Amino acid sequence: MGWESLGQWGHDVVRVEPLSGGVANDVWSLRIGGRLAVGRLGTRSDADLAWETGLLQYLDREGLTVPVPIPTSDGRLFHDGLVVMTHLEGGPPETRADWRRVARTLRELHRLTRGWPQRPGWRSSTDLLRATTGTKIDLEAMPAEGVARCRAAWARLAGRATCVVHGDPNPGNVRVTANHIGLIDWDEAHVDVPDLDLVLPGNAACLDDGAFDVAAQASAAWEAAVCWDDDYSKKRLAEVRAL
User: Fold this and answer.
1) Residue 128 burial by CB count (10 A; 0-12/13-18/19+): exposed, middle or buried?
2) In this structure, what CATH number is given to the domain that contains residue 222?
3) Which of 17, 38, 65, 140 could bond 182 through an S-S bridge, CB–CB 3.0 to 4.6 Å?
4) Which residues of the chain form beta strands (DSSP E)?
5) For the chain, how many structural domains are there in total?
6) Domain Aminoglycoside phosphotransferase, which positions (predicted)?
7) 63 within a domain of the structure (yes/no)
8) pLDDT in tens, 99-126
């Protein structure tokens, strides 16, 4: 496995420069036949990549602005952990109006994916009320008191409908232009309660006070668990209220 797999996309593919923001993956800008594209090399399983690329194709067909997988010369959407996608223009959100557009885009994502199957190997926040592991999460590695606080936060989401959540709609993963709101980096996308996507700057999703508190606590607990145990995860856990 490696960047030599780019040959599967033809002989005119050129790596241009590495892109920031890739933690679990090696991400580069590419040129394919003169077009700008993005390549992401990682260790995800074929089942995981099939889930993600299938989702992105569906969202593109439904009118959302997302990176679209570019097939290999023989029609595959990934090869040995490598995915090649279209490049999205735009910059990060800068105004409250931008973030409100982001909120509307996220709600459309949630509407389009009600009942979507879970990403292979993942667990939702409410699954973790009973389960202890799922992809990057291992609750057994966290302090027992911290796990109890996280589960108390997630319990407030129990019984709600689920859908695909982007999982990390931070400014670096949003591309704003006058015509679209694009969402990139779907590495954390999975099926969960939509509230986890809606803790946005300035409460751009217009949640009422109670709903925002539930979402903020559940989101902090999720990020603490999924990143444990670096400094950021410890900071997020400190935001989850003690029992």
Assistant:
1) buried
2) 3.90.1200.10
3) 65
4) 13-18, 26-32, 35-41, 82-86, 133-134, 137-138, 163-165, 174-176, 181-183, 190-192
5) 2
6) 16-217
7) yes
8) 999 999 999 999 999 999 999 999 999 9
| Same domain for 129 and 29 | no
Residues across the chain: 243
- Containing structural domain, residue 7: 3-86
Contacts of 53 (CB under 8 A, 6+ apart): 69, 77, 78, 83
CB atoms inside a 10 Å sphere around CB 191: 20
Are residues 100 and 206 both part of a single domain?
yes
* Lookup: tokens for 55: 């989702």
pLDDT in tens, 52-64: 999 999 999 999 9
Same domain? 62 vs 102: no
Report DSSP state, residue 79: B
Residue whose structure tokens are 């979507």: 116
